[in-house]
Design a protein that fits this description.
Layout: E1 4-7, E2 10-13, E3 18-24, E4 34-39, E5 45-51, E6 58-60, E7 68-73, E8 78-83, E9 92-98, E10 116-117, E11 121-126
Parallel strand pairs: 2-11
Antiparallel strand pairs: 1-3, 3-8, 4-5, 4-9, 5-6, 7-8, 9-10, 9-11
Amino acid sequence: QVQLVESGGGLVQAGGSLRLSCAASARTFTTYPMGWFRQAPGKERDFVATITWSSSRTNYADSVKGRFTISRDNAKNTVYLQMNNLKPEDTAVYYCAAKRWSFSNLMYTAPDDYDYWGQGTQVTVSS
């Protein structure tokens, strides 16, 4: 079982930056693909970014390409989402997720692909 805890959310003005962190409880995290998703009120949970276990590949939603960067530090059991040039439409609860498939180098973009989820962290971007 992997427990995930997000942090780093908050209120920021448009054009600002935030860095989200997701700390995992188990060393097996280091072998799992990881993803970030977000969910705005009344909307479905949407894919934001994903990264392979070795950081060899990343993938982003079109809406965040060039502004967000996903990374991970396996020595710290942590995955990050650096968010720059934030826009009001980025306002949502952000969730990190882990897929229980060690050493996979595939890209996973659907919520159903993932097995473990954090509790979420709120990001609010004011205009």
